[in-house]
Write a structure and sequence with these properties.
Low-confidence stretches: 458-467
Number of helices: 16
Largest sheet: 10 strands, mixed
CATH architecture of the largest domain: 3-Layer(aba) Sandwich
Strand content: 15-25%
Number of domains: 2
CATH class of the largest domain: Alpha Beta
CATH superfamily of the largest domain: Glycogen Phosphorylase B
Bound molecules: GDP-alpha-D-glucose
Radius of gyration: 22 Å
Helix content: 40-55%
Length: 467
């Protein structure tokens, strides 16, 4: 293999000093690219009046990035529109929030074409191309139309929804059919892979030829489950860093005789923050004797602020957090801290390390890397307890967490009580299994499994089947 070309909507180069942009995908890709010579291609984050396709190339920390500016209307229709107002809510089972607008659809196709036209001239014959996430589902179709015959893989970082949910999307068949221009499509879990199979079986005259090889739309596609992980060695170093230690000490000093419960999420309705706050409120209502023994800290840096649903959820959370503190706080104590700042990763490692409970309760999540970071940051001799939503992809690998239904405040409250009362031997036993998995199935294992399957895939690009 000569080079790996990674394509994602945004390119976030590593800064190498623990200060990195927020988002699981950015974390995972910068870690993956450190290992391969190649290019990371995507949108610069800047807009211009007219699209020029001019490339900006720079190399930072061993990773070469090639970025392109988009037009304002692209941002509206493709990024804020089809990606974040249509696909994101729908794939997270929030049909009620999904906007279906043909202008978004057109913008999505246009930007995928623009990406393809800008990228195609950079591609050399032996390059392997790895496309990421829901923003770029039809990219392979556009590249193929330009004559690109290289192997192209796609990885979906978010859930693949159930068939009955998927068919709410206008033109769903066209979107899924475009996936058959990839050589390999990867999902976070076997459940999402299965949901994809079910769609193809019912909507595209499909069949499972053998495990991992699907027929549909008269063509073949390799598929697989590749659960993403964190950069475990990097995280282990960060946990030991001076900044992480300082932060851990600071948090410990603020919670003397109290247990810290921590949540860290991008501010997003899929993360179940409202339900989590209600769960914590339930805990306080039902356990008056424990109230003064806890502090809940929720860190939630703002994201996608241009999308109305994100402004609305923020307003609701502001009011809910105010209500909880108003109801329970005393002159010398308040149970809840709600912070919308973005912290450095090494500081986050320190905060996780100081927390007796990691509360990770998304309503739906492709994987959820915070759960894994929390585990990686614990003191092996006195680890905290992870409470994890059953509906996070991570739940499949992390069965030793306390698994909860995030929609039930009572269940969350019960899990908090149980976590806080858990004796050290049980905490160590549960944590050891979780930690072992976080170490083993880390981002390097994910990357190698996907790239391995893409490069050595026994399936050569096949001509359309003759029916
Ligand atoms: C998508 C999928 C999938 C959070 N706050 C701060 C901060 N973060 C970092 C966390 C973590 C990342 O952002 C969030 O990753 P998640 O996986 O939890 O969630 P998404 O951003 O929704 O990611 C998800 C992931 O892609 C990878 O495939 O797991 O299911 O939705 O790394 O630590 N980082 C910094 N400051 C913060 O305040 N520096």
């Amino acid at each position: 293999m000569s080079r790996l070309i990674v394509v994602s909507n945004r390119v976030n180069l590593p800064s190498g000093d623990g200060e990195q942009s927020v988002g699981g995908l950015a974390m995972a890709l910068s870690a993956a690219l450190k290992q391969y010579s190649g290019i990371w291609f995507g949108w610069s984050g800047q807009t211009t009046e007219t699209f020029t396709g001019e490339l900006n190339v720079q190399t930072v920390g061993g990773v070469t990035a090639a970025t392109v500016d988009l037009e304002e209307v692209d941002l509206e229709e493709y990024y804020n529109g089809y990606a974040n107002k249509t696909l994101w809510p729908l794939f997270h089972y929030r049909n009620d929030l999904a906007a279906f607008d043909r202008a978004f659809d057109k913008g999505y196709v246009r930007v995928n074409r623009r990406f393809a036209e800008t990228l195609a001239p950079l591609i050399q014959p032996d390059d392997v191309i790895w496309v990421h996430d829901y923003h770029l589902i039809p990219l392979a179709r556009e590249l193929r139309a330009l004559g690109v015959t290289n192997r192209i893989g796609f990885f979906l970082h978010i859930p693949w929804p159930a068939h009955q949910v998927m068919i709410n999307l206008p033109r769903h068949r066209q979107l899924v059919e475009s996936m058959f221009d990839y050589d390999l499509c990867g999902f976070q879990t076997a459940e999402y892979q299965q949901a994809f199979e079910e769609y193809v079986l019912s909507e595209a005259d499909g069949a499972v030829v053998r495990p991992g090889l699907l027929k549909g739309f008269g063509r073949h596609l390799e598929i697989g489950a590749f659960p993403i992980g964190i950069d475990a060695p990097e995280f282990a170093q960060m946990v030991k860093s001076a900044r992480a230690r300082r932060m851990r000490d600071l948090m410990a000093a603020h919670t003397v005789f109290r247990n810290l419960i921590v949540g860290v999420d991008r501010l997003d309705y899929s993360k179940g923050l409202e339900e989590r706050f209600l769960g914590f409120e339930q805990f306080l209502i039902r356990n008056p004797d424990l109230r003064r023994e806890v502090l809940m800290l929720q860190i939630a840096p703002l994201s996608r602020e241009a999308v109305e649903a994100y402004q609305e959820i923020r307003a609701r959370l502001d009011s809910l957090s105010g209500r909880i503190n108003g109801e329970f706080a005393d002159v010398d104590w308040a149970p809840f801290r709600w912070v919308n700042r973005n912290y450095r990763r090494d500081e986050l490692a320190g905060i996780y390390g100081a927390a007796r409970v990691g509360l990770v309760t998304p309503l739906r999540d492709g994987m959820n890397l915070v759960a894994k970071e929390y585990v990686a940051a614990q003191d092996p001799e006195d680890p905290g307890v992870l409470i994890l939503s059953r509906f996070a992809g991570a739940a499949r690998q992390m069965q030793d967490a306390l698994l909860v239904n995030p929609n039930s405040p009572e269940e969350v409250a019960d899990a908090l009580k149980r976590a806080l009362a858990m004796e050290k031997p049980e905490r160590i036993r549960r944590w050891s299994t979780l930690f072992e998995n976080v170490q083993r199935e880390d981002v390097a294992a994910w990357r190698d499994a996907f790239v391995g399957a893409l490069t050595s895939g026994c399936l050569q690009r096949r001509p359309a089947l003759v029916s």
